[in-house]
Amino acid sequence: MSHKKNIVPFILAIVLHLVLLAALVWNFAFDKEESPKQFVDAPVQAKLVTAPETPKRDASSLKRQQKRQQEIEQAREKEQKRQQELARQQELERQQELEKQKVAEQEKQQQVDAEKQRLELEKKKQQEAELEKQRLADEAKKKAEIDAENKRKAEAEKKKKEAERKRIEEEKRKKTEAERKKREEAERKRRELEEQMASLDDELFEADKGDVRQTQIMSEVQKIQAAIQSKIIRNWDIPQYTGVCIVRISMGPGGIVLNIEAIDGDDGYCESAETAINRAAPLPSSDDPQVMAELKSFRMKFDPSQKEN
Asked: Residue 136 above 80 pLDDT?
């Protein structure tokens, strides 16, 4: 586009100078032919008229021609210089245009490289984002699996605790039920014993109360007490420390133990005494109602000396 714009002024300048040069040449030719024309049409005179002499060019006319020639040469040289300057300017503009094109191509290449780098960076960022997304998805999946496992373990632990709680409650219920039945059975036996004792008291009230009979009863009571004590001591595991315990034993028909009451003594000895009594049950007894009336409640002392005997 820059070269095409410069061609039109260049052509116009050449045409202008050619017109100027033609005008100068035409003026020079006109001046050269002007002098002879002054005398061509002069009429022939009489003999007395002297013929005119051929006019000579004067020095000023020659100088004008030389000056015009110099001006033409100067104009030609000026035009050549102008054309050279114009050509140099055009070459400079062409070089500048080439430089601009080069810079534009470099900028374009830089833009292409920058766009390529941007696309590569975006691609890299997208890949990193995909990797991060996958990593987060894997972490979320792993966390969900861990949460599910923890939930499963928590539910299993909860079920285990619930089952243990129910087992303990069931054992407690069974123990409570057993104790209740035991108390009811003891109460039933106590009532039976009271009824038997009441009946026995009635029978004793009607029985012979002589001294001989009483002596026999007491003798039988002593024998049975000695047998009871011997059997209990055999089942007694004496504690490893010194102590003593006195208990009251309530016994029913057939030697059943109705109640054991610690009256005085060391707790450890009393617990060992109760264990020994329960091991020894049923205790030695008698079919004689009067003897059993004497044995329905009696005391027994537990101390290491009894075990040695």
From this structure: yes
Does 214 or 107 have the greater pLDDT score? Answer: 107
In our burial notation (b when 16+ CB lie closer than 10 A, e otherwise), range 92-130 reads eeeeeeeeeeeeeeeeeeeeeeeeeeeeeeeeeeeeeee
Mean pLDDT value across residues 233-247: 91
- Name the least confident of 22-36, 75-89, 161-175, 193-207: 22-36
Angle at the Cα of 85 (from 81 to 87), degrees rounded to 5? 115
Q: In whole angstroms, what is the distance from residue 101 CA to residue 97 CA?
A: 6
* The pLDDT of residue 202: 58
Contacts of 203 (CB under 8 A, 6+ apart): 289, 290
CB atoms inside a 10 Å sphere around CB 150: 10
